[in-house]
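Below is a filled-in request sheet from our internal design queue. Each sheet records the structural input a requester submitted and the sequence that came back. We keep these sheets so that new team members can see what a complete request looks like end to end.

REQUESTER: design group, bay 2
PRIORITY: normal
MODE: inverse folding
CHAIN LENGTH: 191
BACKBONE (tokenized):
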């Protein structure tokens, strides 16, 4: 008898638990060191990007902040912004100054809305073909779909190494594939 494949919600729950254990096992210096390793892996691939959107990490997520802080002249860093929990995610420039509906910092409502040409996407789990499982609300899928209607947008998943699945992940028709994935130890081109 065939064993059924795990559902996305089962995969998400397991991956979140694994991410939590891993992130909490890191000393602050080791965590900072691993996050800094993203810079030489990702930054060379951002040449020519005008607006790079990152995110304010949740407690156990790897932070893209070292990448955003290393952007060059003429490049703008942006962060997600929400008017309310169910509103469409947009990106605004500037520092995170006010709480988002979930309590994480976001730019102020009067910060300029921007259209990024690169989006650094947090992951819960991803496979090497660019299928990503997030937190299940679809914010990034909807935002990427909307942005890509106006032109090409490079979506780079940012993850701890343990968040990579060697097995293909299930995808729904509305899931937006990642173009690449960066971890502290490797770059994976998914195109």
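RETURNED SEQUENCE:
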């Amino acid at each position: 008898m065939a064993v059924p494949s795990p559902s996305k919600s089962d995969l998400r729950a397991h991956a979140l638990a694994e991410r939590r254990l891993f992130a909490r096992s890191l000393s602050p210096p080791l965590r900072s060191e691993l996050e800094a390793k993203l810079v030489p892996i990702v930054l060379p691939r951002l040449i020519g990007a005008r607006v790079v959107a990152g995110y304010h990490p949740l407690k156990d997520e790897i932070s893209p902040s070292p990448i955003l802080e290393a952007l060059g002249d003429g490049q703008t860093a942006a962060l997600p912004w929400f008017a309310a929990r169910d509103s469409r995610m947009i990106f605004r420039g500037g520092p995170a100054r006010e709480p988002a509906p979930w309590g994480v910092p976001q730019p102020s409502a009067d910060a300029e809305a921007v259209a990024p040409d690169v989006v650094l996407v947090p992951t819960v789990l991803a496979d090497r073909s660019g299928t990503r499982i997030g937190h299940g609300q679809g914010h990034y899928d909807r935002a990427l779909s909307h942005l890509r209607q106006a032109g090409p947008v490079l979506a780079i998943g940012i993850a701890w190494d343990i968040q990579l699945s060697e097995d293909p992940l299930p995808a729904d028709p509305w899931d937006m594939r990642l173009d690449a994935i960066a971890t502290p130890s490797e770059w994976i081109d998914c195109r």
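SHEET NOTES:
- Helices lie at 8-25, 28-36, 38-42, 65-69, 139-150.
- The two ends are 35 Å apart (CA to CA).
FILED BY: M.R.
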